[in-house]
Specification:
The chain is an alpha/beta fold and about 200 residues long. It has one domain (about 1-90, about 120-195): Phosphoglycerate mutase-like (Rossmann fold, 3-Layer(aba) Sandwich), CATH 3.40.50.1240. Helices cover about 35% and strands about 15% of the residues. The chain has 7 helices and 6 strands, in the order βαβαβαααβααββ. Strands 3-2-4-1-5-6 form a 6-stranded mixed beta sheet. β2, α2 and β3 form a beta-alpha-beta unit. α1 (about 30-40) runs parallel beside α2, α3 crosses α4 (about 100-105) and α5 packs across α6.
Amino acid sequence: MELILVRCGKTQAPPGTLRGQAQLALAATGFADLQQLASSWIGPPPRFLFSSDLRRSRESVQVFAAALGMEPLIDARLRELDLGLWNGANFAKISVQETQAWQRWNADCSEYAPPEGELWGALLERTRSWLDGLRQLQSEQRVLAIVHEGSLRAILAHILDLPLAKTRTLRIMPAHASALRLQPDGDEVSYLNSPQFLVL
């Protein structure tokens, strides 16, 4: 199976905003970048078009729904990591006002969560459940999913068997595409963080 993942576009949030599960709207540049990416789609439409249920992802997926003539499937398991009370907050203020909690979380979000937020392991479990469902589909099918930086890193962690620290070395930009092959004899990454769709 071909699984193509797109990080949603840039939002209207001010610089320094911790996005998390905040319901942020896409910026005009975010729409434009996604439209450019959608115009580079190669071949027939995917069998399924998925999206996180967060606002920026739902707005992003509409670009592809219009371009491909499809109805998106909304799945909350593809949400970004929940930052709890830090969703939508300014990281500079949090780093000063809640220094100890901020430093702990930045050092290891697998062991520490933001106040009322979730651990990295919870995001891994959500995305693993979604991937397991995809593996039940026919092997020749194509799937396109609009996700977030964190959920994309979690999916790559599953495919590449990477620890959290290593996923942070992967560059994941807004409105960029990555492609995977899910195969019974071993998954693989076809390409990563591309500004256009590529031939697999």
